[in-house]
UniProtKB/TrEMBL annotation:
Top-level taxonomy: Bacteria, Bacillati, Bacillota, Negativicutes, Veillonellales
Residue ranges, compositional bias (Low complexity): 347-356
GO cellular component: plasma membrane
SUPFAM superfamilies according to UniProt: ABC transporter transmembrane region, P-loop containing nucleoside triphosphate hydrolases
The name this protein goes by in its record: ABC transporter, ATP-binding protein
Length: 611
C-alpha cells in the first residue's frame, strides 16, 4: 500500500510552517501560567504594583501572539488537509475511469460513492484536526511536565499518574469501538445503495404501491445502523465521564499536595496556580489529541478502503494470444490514465491506426468464433459467434429477449473482454488497437440512453473524439440528422437547456435522439445502435433512418450495426444476424433467412409478416 506520506510530501513547506506555529502556540500558552505565578509570588504577595502592571502588559502581548499563531496554524492545516483531499479524489476518479464494467459490478455503487465522498472527508478531517491537536501535544506534555517537575516533583508525578489513567481508559474504549466503527461503515454503504435504488426506482415503487415493502427493507437496515450507532455512543459514553473525572481529580490532587508543600515552605502559592494551569493545559491538550486519535483507526480503515480502489487491477482478462502482450503493456503503461473506459491508455499491443480503407475488401468488423461469459456465469452469454460487416453495409441483429444482442454490441468498443476467439476492426484485432483510437472510430448508442448533467450542447459535444473540434454547425447538424432539433428549439434556452442527471427532465424519445446525435457528431466509421429506434414514433424513426442511410453513403462509407425488434426495419438491412441463446441461428439477407432459418421464420410468424 502506498504510504500516506506520499500525499503529505509535496506539502512539506506548509507542514513545516504548521509545526513552527504549533511550537510558538505551545510556548506562548505555557508562558502565560508561568507569568501568572511570577505576578502572584513577586507582585500580588509583595504588593509590587509596578511589577504587576509591566508583567500584565507582557502577558497581554504574549496572549495576542499566541492567538495569532494558533489562528494561522489552523488556516495552514486546513490548507494541507484540503489539498490532500483533493489529490485523493483526483486519484480515485482516475482509478475509477480505468475500472472495467465488471469491476463496478464487483464493488457496487454504494461503496464506491461512500469511499469517494465520506471516506475522503474522514481522512481530511482527521488530518486537519490532527495537525492542530496532535502536533502540539508532545511539546505541551514535555515542556508542561518539565516546568511542573521544576516546581515540585510530587506534583509532576500527580500529572503523570492522571495521564497514565487517561491513556488506559482510551485504549479500553478504542478496543471496543473499532469493530463497531467498521460495521457502521459497511452499513453506510448498504444504506447508500438502498437510498439510491429508491430514488432511481421511485416511479416503479409508487406505480406498484410497494412503499410499505420498501419501507420494511429500509426499517431493517436503518434499525441495524441505529443499533450500531447506539452501541458506539454507549461505548464512548462510558469513557468520556471517566476522563472528565480524572481531569477534575488532578486539580484536587494538585491542591492537596501543593497545599502540603506550601505549608512546608517548599512551594509558593503562585506556583500552585501555575501547576494547576500546566495540568489543565497538558490534560486538555491530551484530551483534544485523544479525540482525534480515536478517529485515526477509522481514518486508517477509510484509507485502506480508498487504496483498495486505487490499487485495484482491472479484472478483465484478454483472449489468447493477446493476453500476455496486453498484460505486459499494461504494466508498462502509466496506470490510471484519464481515458474514459475500461483500460489504461496503452492497452493493446500497439497503436494501430486504420489499416484498411473504404475501397479495401477487408471487413470493417469481423467476429471470429467469439465466446464471452459474464462474471461468475455458468454458461457463456455468447458462444462461437462469427460474422463480418463491410464498409457502407448495414447489419441488423435480431433474436429473442436475452439472447445476447446487446452483449455483441458491447464487445466491439471493448466494454467487456471476450473469453476466446477474436474481434477484428479494420483487419486488426481490437486488442491490438489502442483502446482510445478504437473507440474514436465507433459511434455507440446504448439501449438505455444516458445523458449527463449539463446543457444539451454539452451532451451532444460529449460525442467528439479526442482532438475533434466541433463547430456549432456540427452540433446542430447532428441534432438535425437525429431529428432532435425540433424539440430542442422548443425548449427554454434551446441548446443551452439544462439537462438533469441521467436526462430525467427529458422524455425517453428525446433522450434517445440526443444519444443518436452524440454518436453522429463523432462521424465514426461504425455506428452501433442498440435497439435505439424503439423509443421513437414512426415518423421520426423513418426520418432518422433515412438520414442515417445518407450518412452511410459519405466518403468514409461507415457501416451500421443495429439491434432491431421489428422485421419491417431489419429486412431493409444488407444482412441480418439471428442470435438464439447466445449462438448464431442465421446470417443472411431477409429473403435468404426467410427460407433457411427456422428462428427467423418464427420471428416472422410472431410479427405476422409473410416472407
Ligand atoms: N452485466 C451482466 N452480468 C451478467 N449477466 C448479464 C449481464 N448483462 C446481460 N447478462 C445476461 O446475458 C444474456 C444476454 O444479455 P443481452 O443483454 O445481451 O440480451 P439481449 O438479447 O440484448 O436482450 P434484450 O433484447 O432484452 O435487450 C442474458 O441472459 C442476460 O441475463
Amino acid at each position: 500500500m502506498k504510504p500516506f506520506m506520499h500525499y503529505i510530501k509535496p506539502l512539506w513547506f506548509p507542514a513545516a510552517i504548521v509545526s513552527l506555529l504549533s511550537l510558538l502556540t505551545v510556548a506562548g500558552t505555557l508562558y502565560i501560567p508561568t507569568l501568572t505565578a511570577t505576578i502572584i509570588n513577586d507582585g500580588v504577595l509583595k504588593g509590587d504594583l509596578e511589577m504587576i502592571t509591566s508583567s500584565s502588559i507582557n502577558m497581554l502581548v504574549v496572549a495576542l501572539l499566541t492567538v495569532l499563531s494558533a489562528i494561522l496554524g489552523v488556516a495552514m492545516s486546513a490548507h494541507i488537509s484540503a489539498s490532500v483531499g483533493k489529490v485523493l479524489r483526483d486519484d480515485l476518479v482516475k482509478a475509477l475511469q480505468c475500472f472495467s464494467l465488471r469491476d463496478f459490478t464487483h464493488f457496487g455503487t454504494g461503496t464506491i460513492l461512500m469511499r469517494t465522498s465520506r471516506d475522503v472527508e474522514k481522512i481530511q478531517s482527521v488530518l486537519g484536526e490532527g495537525l492542530n491537536m496532535i502536533l502540539p501535544m508532545p511539546l505541551m506534555i514535555c515542556v508542561g511536565l518539565g516546568l511542573t517537575f521544576y516546581k515540585s516533583w510530587q506534583l509532576g508525578l500527580v500529572i503523570l499518574a492522571v495521564m497514565a489513567c487517561m491513556i488506559l481508559t482510551i485504549i479500553f474504549i478504542e478496543s471496543r469501538a473499532l469493530p463497531i466503527i467498521k460495521a457502521i461503515q459497511l452499513k453506510l454503504d448498504d444504506i447508500t445503495d438502498l437510498v439510491r435504488d429508491h430514488i432511481v426506482g421511485m416511479p416503479v415503487i409508487r406505480a406498484f404501491n410497494r412503499r410499505t415493502y420498501e419501507n420494511d427493507k429500509e426499517i431493517v437496515i436503518f434499525t441495524e445502523s441505529a443499533r450500531l450507532n447506539k452501541k458506539l455512543r454507549q461505548t464512548f459514553a462510558i469513557g468520556l465521564p471517566t476522563i472528565l473525572i480524572l481531569f477534575n481529580m488532578s486539580t484536587v490532587a494538585i491542591l492537596w499536595f501543593g497545599g502540603y508543600n506550601v505549608s512546608m515552605g517548599s512551594l509558593q502559592v503562585g506556583d500552585i496556580m501555575a501547576v494547576i494551569e500546566y495540568a489543565n493545559l497538558i490534560l486538555l491538550s491530551m484530551l483534544m489529541a485523544i479525540f482525534v486519535i480515536i478517529d485515526i483507526p477509522e481514518a486508517i480503515v477509510c484509507y485502506a478502503r480508498i487504496r483498495e480502489l486505487l490499487e485495484h487491477e482491472n479484472t478483465d482478462t484478454f483472449p489468447e494470444p493477446y493476453a500476455s502482450s496486453i498484460t505486459n503493456s499494461m504494466s508498462q503503461s502509466t496506470k490510471h490514465s484519464t481515458n474514459q473506459g475500461s483500460y489504461q491508455t496503452s492497452t493493446g499491443t500497439g497503436t494501430a491506426t486504420a489499416t484498411a480503407t473504404a475501397t479495401d475488401n477487408t471487413p470493417l468488423l469481423e467476429f471470429r468464433n467469439v465466446t464471452f461469459r459474464y462474471d461468475n456465469a455458468e454458461s457463456p452469454a455468447l458462444e462461437n459467434i462469427s460474422f463480418k460487416v463491410y464498409h457502407g453495409e448495414t447489419l441488423a441483429i435480431m433474436g429473442d429477449i436475452g439472447s445476447g444482442k446487446s452483449t455483441i454490441t458491447n464487445l466491439i468498443p471493448r466494454l467487456f473482454a471476450i473469453e476466446s476467439g477474436d474481434i477484428l476492426f479494420k483487419g486488426k484485432s481490437i486488442y491490438e488497437w489502442n483502446v482510445d483510437d478504437l473507440r474514436a472510430h465507433i459511434g455507440y448508442v446504448p439501449q438505455k440512453a444516458y445523458l449527463f448533467t449539463g446543457t444539451i450542447d454539452m451532451n451532444v459535444r460529449y460525442g467528439a473524439a479526442s482532438g475533434q473540434v466541433l463547430s456549432v454547425e456540427d452540433v446542430e447538424n447532428a441534432c438535425h440528422l437525429a431529428k432532435a432539433d425540433e424539440f430542442i428549439n422548443r425548449l427554454d434556452g434551446g441548446y443551452q437547456y439544462t439537462v438533469s442527471q441521467g436526462g430525467t427532465n427529458l422524455s425517453g424519445g428525446q433522450r434517445q435522439r440526443l444519444a443518436m446525435a452524440r454518436a453522429l457528431v463523432r462521424k465514426p466509421d461504425l455506428f452501433i445502435f442498440d435497439d435505439s429506434f424503439s423509443a421513437l414514433d414512426g415518423t421520426t424513426e423513418r426520418a432518422v433512418r433515412t438520414a442515417l442511410q445518407e450518412e452511410l453513403q459519405k466518403d468514409n462509407r461507415p457501416a451500421l450495426i443495429s439491434v432491431e425488434q421489428k422485421v419491417s426495419a431489419a429486412k431493409k438491412a444488407d444482412h441480418i444476424l439471428i442470435i438464439n441463446r447466445g449462438q448464431v441461428a442465421g446470417y443472411g439477407t431477409h429473403d435468404e433467412l426467410a427460407t433457411t432459418s427456422t428462428v427467423y421464420q418464427q420471428i416472422l410468424a410472431s410479427q405476422e409478416v409473410t416472407a
